[in-house]
Design a protein that fits this description.
The structure is a homodimer of 347-residue chains.
Chain A (H helix, E strand, L loop, with lengths): L3 H8 L3 H8 L7 H14 L5 H8 L4 E6 L4 H17 L3 E6 L4 H10 L6 E4 L8 H5 L6 E4 L10 E4 L1 H14 L5 E4 L6 H17 L7 E2 L5 H12 L7 E4 L2 H13 L9 E3 L16 E3 L2 H16 L10 E3 L2 E3 L24
Parallel strand pairs in A: 1-2, 1-3, 3-4, 4-5, 5-11, 6-7, 6-8, 8-9
Antiparallel strand pairs in A: 10-12
Helix pairs in contact in A: 1-2, 1-3, 2-3, 5-12, 8-9, 10-11
Chain A binds a DNA duplex (30 and 30 nucleotides) through helix 2 and helix 4.
Chain lengths: 347, 347
DNA sequence: TAAGGCCATGTAACCGGTTACGATAAAGTT
DNA sequence: AACTTTATCGTAACCGGTTACATGGCCTTA
């Protein structure tokens, strides 16, 4: 593997000239440049990015630390990030915290000296881990989590408002007994969605203690909840599942049991995963533009790398859209149910 | 940002001792180690991975170069890779060739000095780009492409056999006129699937020029093909779409037009994306364990990094399984249609 | 023709770690 | 007590680039 020294020797010039020629500085003769380039070609020299980033003090790489890599949600985030990063000639270094606190700490530490900036999506539990491990010296944008306490810029989804909207929608379409299939207890998104549900029930159905069935965002847990319904244990005419995957599980069990959706029970989810429009009946849900989460965060990070000092007050919060489909009786004629328009910046 | 020199000074020892203490070498006194560790903590020192990898001549990072990041296919591959990589303490550097030849070359070059090994999935067109840009010095495993010409180890899917199997299955279940919705012409997977289809038609339906409708792997192109069918332009009693996404498009148009699936027309796809089991009717397809593609490739790369010299003869080829679902009349009682068992290694 | 300026080039220091090698001191041997 | 062995430690070179500064050639200008 040829080094710059080899190239310089081959071209009969100094390493400094070789370096300058390769990087296109203007203080090199055309003749010298030609000699150097010939040597580069002959030795098929490729600059060693590691060594280069050591002196330049930049790596053209940003670190992306996610709690997991499972499912469409994360792949969409990464795609959104890549879209913007690639446009700026940046590379992506993937770190995976695999749920554990220890992994998270080491994932962040391992980024030192490898990246110019960090995009972090904290795990569900103990986000305070971040403050212990994040380095103030390296620009960081937080994904999907309100990082006001850390005073870091962040990009998040307004889960509360979304859940509130879909719950109200179910009530307005005539549901009297809406039950909620919750997500994992330790998951922040899930908690916010549950809170939005509870508040909407209190405000619009005068129901202060609505039924909340446990779930964990998996299809199986959605099925489990639906089995309770068909067993008649819980009277209900509508279900709001904390995510689409569980809603899909609900629908399949209800259908097998001969319950009509939405005739007997309306069902709604959250996320608008691609599957949602294809299941039968098609699923009413709150649409989250996941890739925009990633691309927006990356854009903010690029600004920070350019020197802008962003803080928590520069956060972007996306409010999800209601998508009314067949599982709640089909789309609404006018925009009766289309509650929240997407808003950027929450201030 | 503290450096090793700072730590050494703070601890009152030399940089060599500091380095040794931090890396847990055995030729350091417990007392020295304690002093160094105290300094590390006090200055919250984190070793600079870039500098470290320069001397160690390894980066603990492997580069992953994909043609795109869109959809479940790539996310599953990356997840499979990450699973194995993480187990060995490796990081993943993502490179995206975004379709273009120029991008591909620069993506590969940019990896020099950043990674210990490479996992490359060549773009559909001009895979010979690889030979020009790949570096013999850096261990490389090729994904989803027969790299025999490059004599590189690779992991691929037997698209031909899969397509042949599903086509034969349709014929054996009584279809007389099976039509194929093809993938993009420049796509190797698509071409192989089409070839498998054509051969199966010739062998089992004595049909030497079966109808092949154009498609490009998108849902819309699947719909377009189905529109031709409902318009009666093409007589058909079964459709084999080159991927699941197009098959799903077909089904939705057929359903809207009042055609019964599988009553009037049976439909089968390829890939077994998560969506496949959820659409109505559930979709018969060839199951490809995408994540295993990634994890297997990563495992091979790790072997190479350990010094094993793998070549094209060490390739792993996965043969997809037939999954018979409702869109072709439901599962088969015995294993009549379950043609191909998964086989590892093609030799 | 000598002094001054400009420009291309080379030398060497540096980025932040690791480690070969030699020095020093402590421990063991006879 | 004199000598060898062994363990710990420090100095300095090195990984492969970049770049501040010094050098020397050539062109101006008086």
């Amino acid at each position: 593997m040829a080094t710059l020294r080899d190239v310089a020797k081959e071209a009969g010039v100094s390493v400094a000239s070789a370096s300058r020629a390769i990087n296109g500085h203007d203080n090199v003769t055309a003749a010298t440049t030609a000699k150097v380039m010939a040597a580069v070609k002959k030795l098929s020299f490729v600059p060693h990015s590691g060594a280069r980033s050591l002196t330049r003090r930049k790596t053209d790489t940003i670190g992306v630390i996610l709690p997991d890599l499972f499912g469409e949600f994360f792949s969409e985030i990464v795609r959104g990030i890549d879209l913007v990063a690639h446009g700026s000639g940046m590379h992506l270094l993937l770190g995976n915290m695999h749920g554990s606190a220890h992994e998270t700490a080491s994932a962040i530490r391992a980024m030192r000296g490898r990246v110019d900036g960090l995009l972090v999506m904290p795990p569900d539990v103990e986000p305070e881990l971040l403050s212990d491990n994040l380095d103030a010296a390296i620009p960081t944008v937080v994904l999907n989590y309100d990082a006001t306490l850390l005073d870091l810029p962040y990009v998040a989804i307004d889960n509360y408002t979304g859940a509130y909207a879909v719950t109200r929608f179910l009530i307005e379409r005539g549901a009297r007994r809406v039950i909620h299939v919750a997500g994992p207890k330790h998951n922040r998104d899930a908690r916010e969605r549950q809170r939005g549900f509870a508040d909407a029930m209190a405000d619009h159905a005068s129901e202060r203690s609505p039924v909340i069935l446990p779930g964990d965002f998996t299809e199986e847990s959605g099925k489990e909840a639906a089995r309770l319904l068909v067993a008649g244990k819980v009277p209900a005419d509508a279900v709001f599942a904390a995510n689409d995957v569980m809603a899909v599980g609900c629908i399949s069990v209800l259908a097998e049991a001969g319950r009509s959706v939405p005739g007997d029970i309306a069902v709604a989810g959250f996320d608008d995963i691609p599957l949602a429009r294809h299941v039968a009946p098609s699923l009413t849900t709150m649409q989250v533009k996941i890739d925009r989460l990633g691309s927006t965060a990356m854009t903010m990070l690029l600004r920070m790398l350019r020197g802008d000092a962003l803080t928590a007050s520069d956060a972007t919060i996306f409010t999800p859209h209601l998508i009314a489909r067949a599982s709640t009786g089909g789309p609404v004629s006018e925009r009766a149910g289309a509650v929240a328009a997407e808003s950027e910046n929450a201030g």
